[in-house]
Amino acid sequence: MDKSKRFFLKGAGALLAGMSAYQATRASEHSSPASQRKYALLHDENRCIGCDACTQACREVNQVPEGVSRLDIVRTGPHGEYPNQTYHFERQSCQHCENAPCVNVCPTGAAYKDPQTGIIKVDEWKCVGCLYCIAACPYKVRFIHPVTRAADKCDFCEQTRLSKGELPACVTSCPTQALVFGDLLDTQSGVYQLVRTQPVSRDKESLGTSPKLFKIRAAKGEVIL
Ligand code: SF4
Ligand code: SF4
Ligand code: SF4
Question: CB neighbours of 147 closer than 8 A, spacing ≥ 6?
Answer without folding.
Answer: 65
